[in-house]
Amino acid sequence: MRARTAFLPCLAMALALGCGAGRAQSISALATQAEAERSAQGDQHAGAPSAPGLSAGAETSAAQLNLTLPVPSVTLYPGDALTPAVLTDRPAPRNVVESGMYAPRADALAGKVARRVLPAGVPISMSSVTDAIMVTKGVTARVILKEGGLHISGYATPLESGSAGAIVRLKNIDSGQIIIGEVQADGSVRIKMR
């Protein structure tokens, strides 16, 4: 009974679309035909990792058109950095590549970390990655003031976390004053004179 209930959606779809020429006319014949089609599809996809939006036929046509998307070569977990060593290109259909949901190139993922689990072989959606946090709230950070020939550096406690380019508030450890600066790629914070 369970085997037949698994094919009910297929049967409903076939009945809704109508039975064309050369197609089975009875429910039992439709069930047999759906089972045969499903087993044929299973044989085609055996051994290939499944990915949303990517089918075996689509991979072949995408390879012919040279359309690819970066995918993890290993499963990545939240907080793991996306580096060229863990990324590989995989053929993808044109509609998936042009949808804008997925990272188009590996260089678009440079400096990013995984927000959620990224399975191996599955295209990486842009909502699944985030910029690496360079300054963490409550963890002492180096602050630098450079104006003309003046160069002052010291330490402050960030009041908020931020990635490179973010504007954050910090508390000066020596004076207790609140200062504002821009997070740099090296993890320091650059302060500007007002």
Briefly summarize what is shown.
With 194 residues, the chain is α+β, with helices and mostly antiparallel strands. The protein is 25% helix and 27% strand. This is Flagella basal body P-ring formation protein FlgA.
Folded structure, characterized:
It comes from Xanthobacter agilis. This is Flagella basal body P-ring formation protein FlgA. This protein is an alpha+beta fold and 194 residues long. It is built from five helices and eleven strands; from the N terminus they run ααααββαβββββββββ. A five-stranded mixed beta barrel has the order 6-7-9-10-11. It has a two-stranded antiparallel ribbon with strand order 1-2. A two-stranded antiparallel ribbon has the order 3-4. The radius of gyration is 27 Å and the shape is elongated. The termini are far apart.
Number of structural domains: 3
> Number of helix segments?
5
Q: Looking across the biggest beta sheet, what order are the strands in? A: 6-7-9-10-11
Q: Which value, in Å, is the CA radius of gyration?
A: 27 Å
CATH homologous superfamily designation of the largest domain: Antifreeze-like/N-acetylneuraminic acid synthase C-terminal domain
| Morphology call | elongated
> Might you state the CATH topology name of the largest domain?
Type Iii Antifreeze Protein Isoform Hplc 12
How many strand elements?
11
* Helix and strand element order: HHHHEEHEEEEEEEEE
The average pLDDT is 77
Largest sheet: 5 strands, mixed, barrel
CATH class wording of the largest domain: Alpha Beta
